[in-house]
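Look over this today:
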Amino acid sequence: MISISTFVGILGAVGLFVYAIFKSTDNYLIFVSLFSLLIVLGGTFGATLISYSFRLIWAAFTEMMVNLLDEKNQNKQLKQLVSRIIEWNDIYKKQGITALENSLTEKEKKDDFIINAMELLGTGYKSKVLSSMLDDTNESDFQRRNEHVNVINTLSIYAPSFGMVGTLIGLIIMLDNMSGDLSALGKGLAIALLTTLYGTLLAQLLFKPSAIRIARRQHRIFFERQIITAGLELITENKDNLYIQDRLNCYLAPKHKMTELGQ
């Protein structure tokens, strides 16, 4: 579900932009130019395809949409994660690794990191060795996922640049018509200004905010996996639930620390 802040931000930015147009002129269509939009989008995505593979660009756009429509309460989620790790400890101590693997939820079964962690746990790796392997996995996965941020940031750089390219095209059209049909000057001027407008809007209202949201999500996932790693290390060291809770409370915000076992 889209977050309130994201909804208000989009609504506020677009609403104020549209309001300014409606209050400034009766000819609203002067702000619409398919040719200008094609110059910006075509140049931006063309240059991005040269820079990155199509598969990576598609993955970046998929993650951008997921981040736009999905916003979770991080403090609440981290607290639930700690509680879940305590449940894992109970299952692992009483029934073993097979029961622990069978107890995973559908969401957990889709998490490659958790599946890998369970496989390593089942292999017999313990304590620092297990922790080291999971830390390396977390770090390498974070670096791979960070490529999505780079793709969106690249789009935010290219969009205004190709807006300027459109401006140059529009100026050339204007200069070419100065000795002929002066009525065509307006068409060239519209292309010159609208391409810059479109490129700037795409960069500032879509690509840059999206890159920041993706980066925040990647750091959140990285942090959650650090907690999972610490929790599994404690489980293999045969620590009791209270010790695990107190140890993992170090990762939680002061107001969200667990005060009672499992709560």
Q: What stands out?
A: The mean pLDDT is 87. The two ends are 26 Å apart (CA to CA).
